[in-house]
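[job 4471] stage=fold_predict status=RUNNING
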Amino acid sequence: MSVLLIEAFHGGSHKQLMDLLQEELQDDCVLYTLPAKKWHWKARTAALYFMQTVPASANYRILFASSVLNLAELTALRPDLGKLKKVLYFHENQLAYPVQKCQERDFQYGYNQILSWFMPEHKLAHLEKVIGVKRNGDAYHPEGLPGQQKSSALMKNSNTHCESGLCEAQPGLYTTQHEGLPSPLTVPARLNTSEASESANPCQEEDKEHLTFNLSHILSGPDYQQRPLHIAWPHRWEHDKDPETFFKVLLKLKEKDLPFHVSVLGEAFTEIPDIFSEAKKVLGSSVLHWGYLPSKDDYFRALCMADVVISTAKHEFFGVAMVEAVYCGCYPLCPKALVYPEIFPAEYLYSTPEQLFKRLQNFCKRPDTVRKHLYKGETAGFSWAVLGSKFRSLLAAEPREDL
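[job 4471] inference complete, writing structure tokens
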């Protein structure tokens, strides 16, 4: 058990990544976790918890953790762990995370992330040498990165364009969530949804059977090609995914009497934005499915039946759900911002909600154009078949003095 895996928020994409690593490393790793609840408390107190629960061992060589953990605190409390090679995986950037209300930001969470990847002068000099980090006053920023991602960019190595050195160089690609994606032929059996956790929200239980019945009927019907455009939104029901913009566009389509169906997937938590209940009432019969699907097969079946997948996110480091939907045959429409221009060709990007509306309006009138479309981007590099070996190589590397 030479690899110590620590996850302070063991749910969703965090759990997905750790599960894949466990499967890949098998007997060579040990995993310690905390449940995916009360995220803010986990960020503040996880180091103290793991300091007490992770036993000392002479076998540990590498510590792999997500940035929910305050790594600086843990290594200060446990000097034995501070001696290990450390890999810190950023699922999000707390310095730029959207605030839900107009109030003073709690900078503790961003500060935790800064402390966790802060490096002494000799290590920054090493980074400057191997990845071209340029000084800007007292700050270090890789050239060409959008401002939102600069804080986590120092985790790259000389041969990659991905945080923590987890994937091969690709022009303009700076991402963090590379959880496993197989070939399209094996999607239902192998993929994991980035927005899911182990249990469904009870508010969504009532619709579980609704999807299977409707989609089976649609698939077997004689007018399969003539059915209305099917739009999917497979994201967490939280403010950073900007459901308000998504539903405003759909309600405008409804006002224009344009035919479409919609499946609103993804997991809901304690606080659900009011727009969800309001939109469901207005959308009425246009809704094919509403709510989280705990079954991976059901989730990917829903994506396979959709024509278009939409993101309206205001904060995104990668967007596993969007890439999964593309594997399932969906036409993606994403903001021309955040990480999306680095993954999706310009054809699939929109700059304003008005542009998104116009694209969907045209698709509603001619859904056959979307169904005949072949995706023009490259997604093979995001498959676990490719990335699994990169993780193995990273976690098998012997510690060096310059790490």
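[job 4471] summary: The radius of gyration is 22 Å.
[job 4471] exit 0
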